[in-house]
From TrEMBL:
Keyword annotations from UniProtKB, A to Z: S-adenosyl-L-methionine
One Pfam entry name: SAM_HAT_C
Domain of life: Bacteria
Family annotation (PANTHER family): CHLORINASE MJ1651
Residues annotated as domain S-adenosyl-l-methionine hydroxide adenosyltransferase C-terminal: 167-269
UniProt gene name: fjo14
Protein name according to UniProt: S-adenosyl-l-methionine hydroxide adenosyltransferase
Ranges where the S-adenosyl-l-methionine hydroxide adenosyltransferase N-terminal domain occurs: 4-144
Keyword S-adenosyl-L-methionine: yes
Source organism per UniProt: Capnocytophaga catalasegens
Lineage of origin: Bacteria, Pseudomonadati, Bacteroidota, Flavobacteriia, Flavobacteriales
Amino acid sequence: MHIITLTTDFGERDYSVGALKGKLYSLISNARIVDISHQIELFNIMQAAYVLRNAYKYFPTETIHIIGIDDELHSEKSLLIAYYQNQYFICADNGFFSLLFEENIPCDVYKIPFSGQNSTFPTLDFATYVAEKITLKIPLEQIGERTENHIFTNDYTPFANKKRIDGKVIYIDHYGNVISNISKKLIEKHAQGRRFDVFFKGVDFKNISIQEIYTQYNDIEFKSNKKILANEILIFNQLQHLELAIYRGNPLTIGAASTLFGIEYRSPVSIQFIDNQ
């Protein structure tokens, strides 16, 4: 059995997901296909990277991950394969790997030369055959050419110095929680024990320490010894990113962090450190 995951912006309305799965089953009869998400915002490789980064670590070794976001190819934009932590990742050369792996971009990246064949559905027409070759144990060196010359993007890297950190919102989840690109590790590095102010659009938290940021949502109940619904909280989430949430909020009823404060993808997030007196 070969586990193959799909992360795309294809949605559920069109034929695309069904065709892709059918092609994979035709090529790899013992495939087991797992949908990570087909609801990624159109062409949003940052959102796709965040979703897949939260998911892939839970899959067994030799899993193949196919990413169908901004996937059209041409002579200057090839298909890539990365082998990382004993798993395979297939996507277009659009900067996705630099977002998925951040500072840990693997050295085992292979570029598949552009064939010259035009396609409006390259994930179906090309990525499926790459997945098939991987399942047949064909060495990656025979599928593509090892390369370090692929697109890197640092557009989502926060700015940080001893006075402040400036980041942005990179994801809004199903609950309306707002996730930033500022990590706990980055705050610890620059805070050096100092207290700080945190600013999201429409809400701020003044003079707090890193220990006061929650590690799970219901900390607000047990650490305050009372139940507080619909209050804003800061939390370090599963990936240890700084997140703004409304405790037990609902974007469709009482509201959530994104709806109540008008926060959107790429909205600014900043931290200002308070010098010790």
